[in-house]
């Protein structure tokens, strides 16, 4: 068997996640929110409901995508998903002229997004890495931050030059070309071998066993809460800042700082996870956004608004690799794709609920302040949950070996 440098899987994951569901579906939503509502006269809460529907559909479909990836492999799930996701964005450009159509297309996009989440990339990396799993996950998931920093700027430029419809077409092309190429060339799992060949079986719980575990529910509730808070604020940060008199271009630039913070958060979290007890790392990154929300409540100048967005982005930047790492250490690798799907479903449900709560509170009060205060309390509760996880159930193997090296040696 030809030896594969496992770090190429990480590189491919970076580019695949650059145009994943997060940067494309969530981080550009604030860029499209004002031009879409301005053209059609829809309320912000009505328009935001489309994102809620899309993310909730993704949440429902991610466990199925995880089971399919466990059975058929990463590329068999991700390549068709990228294609369908791009086609859904083209449909937004040409067919979304009523709230109902806008929501239906976002729902279809949400189905395709289930195979374009960090799940397949995290599954591949967790299988290839044990001794440097935290770092590998952190580097790979920084692709989401890179996309969050660059894609909204690209979308804003397209909106300015070709309108929001043309911008959706441009994002569709970017997603297909970059995502399909990255996954097709680089992302793969190690070959599966039977236990009879002398290789150790993957340790861990089945999906059904995980659903009966208190550890699973602590993780699920904690990540749903953090996603509710951080994604809710990020989705509305551009209109929030514009409402305070900050130019749209400056507000979008602040969102770009969140993307850079995403990168830093993922890399820092990945580095720390291999060295510090993971619940401590998780609690730290769950609490950092509270400071950012406090700055937004203080009605800051553009410079301080950027700092606030960076602090929120640091917390958002650590979530996805924390899910994968904590899952691997507390619930194991046996049904990694399926269980990750359940946890990411909780994460996506929170991600969808946050923007809707923010929009609903704004429509009811004319301000985001009450929502920001409530979301700060949600972050505090999530940090307390992860601190109650206890010792690792599946610690690193002695000697730091990883399954990919065992598989290669067997050949």
Automatic annotation (TrEMBL):
Keywords: Membrane, Transmembrane, Transmembrane helix
Claim: S-adenosyl-L-methionine is one of the keywords in the record: no
Spans through the membrane: 7-34, 46-65, 77-96, 102-122, 134-155, 167-187, 215-234, 246-269, 276-297, 303-327, 339-362, 368-387
Domain Major facilitator superfamily (MFS) profile: 9-394
PANTHER family associated with the record: EG:103B4.3 PROTEIN-RELATED (PTHR11360:SF284), MONOCARBOXYLATE TRANSPORTER (PTHR11360)
Protein name in UniProt: MFS transporter
Native source organism of the sequence: Pigmentiphaga daeguensis
Lineage: Bacteria, Pseudomonadati, Pseudomonadota, Betaproteobacteria, Burkholderiales
């Amino acid at each position: 068997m030809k030896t594969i440098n496992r770090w190429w899987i990480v590189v491919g994951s970076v580019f695949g996640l650059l145009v994943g569901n997060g940067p494309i579906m969530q981080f550009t939503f604030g860029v499209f929110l004002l031009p879409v509502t301005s053209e059609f006269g829809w309320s912000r809460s009505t328009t935001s409901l489309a994102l809620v529907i899309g993310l909730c559909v993704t949440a429902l479909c991610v466990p199925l995508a995880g089971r399919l990836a466990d059975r058929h492999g990463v590329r068999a799930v991700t390549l068709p998903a990228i294609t369908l996701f791009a086609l859904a964005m083209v449909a937004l450009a040409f067919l979304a002229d009523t709230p109902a159509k806008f929501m239906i297309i976002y729902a279809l996009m949400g189905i395709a997004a289930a195979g374009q989440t960090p799940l397949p990339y995290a599954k591949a990396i967790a299988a290839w890495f044990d001794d440097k799993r935290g770092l590998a996950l952190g580097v790979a998931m920084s692709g989401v931050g890179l996309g969050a920093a660059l894609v909204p700027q690209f979308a804003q430029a397209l909106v300015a030059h070709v309108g929001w419809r043309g911008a959706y077409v441009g994002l569709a092309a970017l997603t297909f070309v970059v995502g399909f190429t990255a996954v097709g060339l680089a992302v793969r799992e190690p070959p599966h071998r039977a236990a009879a060949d002398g290789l150790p079986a993957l340790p861990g719980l089945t999906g059904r066993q995980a659903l009966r575990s208190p550890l699973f529910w602590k993780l699920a509730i904690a990540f749903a809460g953090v996603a509710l808070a951080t994604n809710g604020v990020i989705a509305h940060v551009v209109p929030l800042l514009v409402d305070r008199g900050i130019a749209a271009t400056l507000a979008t630039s602040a969102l770009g700082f969140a993307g850079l913070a995403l990168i830093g958060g993922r890399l820092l979290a990945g580095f720390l996870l291999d060295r510090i007890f993971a619940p401590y790392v998780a609690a730290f990154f769950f609490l950092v956004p509270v400071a950012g929300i406090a700055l937004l409540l203080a009605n800051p100048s553009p410079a301080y608004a950027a700092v606030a967005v960076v602090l929120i982005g640091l917390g958002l930047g650590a979530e996805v690799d924390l899910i994968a790492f904590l899952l691997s250490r507390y619930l194991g690798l046996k049904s990694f794709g399926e269980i990750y799907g359940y946890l990411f479903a909780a994460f996506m449900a929170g991600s969808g609920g946050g923007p809707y709560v923010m929009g609903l509170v704004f429509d009811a009060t004319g301000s985001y302040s009450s929502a920001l205060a409530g979301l700060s309390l949600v972050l505090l509760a999530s940090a307390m949950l992860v601190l109650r996880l206890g010792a690792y159930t599946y610690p690193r193997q002695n000697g730091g070996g990883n399954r990919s090296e065992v598989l290669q040696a067997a050949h």
